[in-house]
Amino acid sequence: MNDQEKDTNSIKDDKIQYHSTQYLNHCLMIQNKNLNNLLKLWLNKMLIQKNLKNMFQKLIQMISFPNIMDLIDPIESLIQKVLQTNVQFNIFSIVKMDSIPLLRYEALWIISNIVFETQQQIQIILDNDGINILFLGLESQYDEFIELGVWALANIAADNIKFRDMLLQKGILFHLKRIWKQQKKTKSELIKTIVWALSNLAKGKPTTKFGIRGLILILSEIIIRTDDEEQLIDSSWGLSYLVQDIYEIDMQIDKRLIKKLTVLLNSTKHTLITPALKTIGNILSGNDEQKNQVLQAGVLQSFEILLQHKCKSIRREVCWSLSNIVAGTIPQIKQIIRNDQLPKSLLKQLQLNDLQIKKQIAFFVSNSAIYAELIDLEYLIGSCKLIQKIQFEGKFAVYKQLIEDQKIIAKVIQLQSHPNDTIYENALKILDNLVIKDSL
């Protein structure tokens, strides 16, 4: 599963035959006759016991196969016609029935297809107690029912942040955590669907404020416990969204999580590296304790290797992460600057024609100048030949402009009046270097 919405049409039921000539003829008949009257006839209570199974199959087929229905009407238009009959109320009633499991399953299938369409159509379902109806599917004894319910709810959550927050307020996290705990030792498709659904709940900006701690905890536990690649990708992406503003969340990060994410950085697959690196980078933008937890896991060794990675976006993320570390405490900054190989590998990125990487290096240099001790700053300049490297490349004006664009110089000027002597001296030093004449 990936970041895109899942089409519920991929769930198969051998009992339903979709591609018959009779089906196509029936769809054409619906188009040419009064759809409203036909649907009401289908759901007449007197016909439920005898004919509902066949009728449900036809309604499912009508909703679930846009390629065939392109011959008649766009799928959105056809679903809108169905909803205009208020047939959803009858379908909801079927979902609530204790008997005839197959009918309940097919009713749930219809709902799951409707919530894959437009916001307006999703809203109609939600306005008519659709969330609680789908929650009934999550309480079923059958995995097939549960998966349909999860799938539908996850698609709703991914549609927009209003729907996402509505589901969280209604308690979807409780249901998903319960099912995950029951299924976590299995390798079923259901457990993968659960993890994908949790990832969808983490998406969207602004980040949700409802149950964010619970989401962080469950996604962290999934990352720690699973070795399934698909689950690791979904859960890592989900967690990366939640910790974008980690400095606002006063909570301890599980040490086992950091270790597992660090292991993922050593993967040969960029699909695993990228979300793990995003998550670690976001945690490194947090408070000093959160930075310490990452550094103690040995992430710097992985960073050295990733700076040689063929993927530019991965190298760019590493540069950003390092710029966050050198905005931390003196001991944290020393771990970077006194690592002979890491700063040199970082500055080699200046040779690449990637503006975003150069911006992150500009942040790294300016943060080092502001927060590092003078002796460490001098070590960085001397060991890496930092100023000479920039000047001799003939690109000093470019890097200077990048720093000016980020308004870093204005911040450094303010630090000239800082009461701390080290910060004051560092501010003077960086200003001296940045006001070198353009001819240099």
UniProtKB/TrEMBL annotation:
GO biological process: protein transport
Protein name: Importin subunit alpha
Keyword terms of this UniProt record: Protein transport, Repeat, Transport
Pfam families the record matches: Arm
Transmembrane feature ranges: none
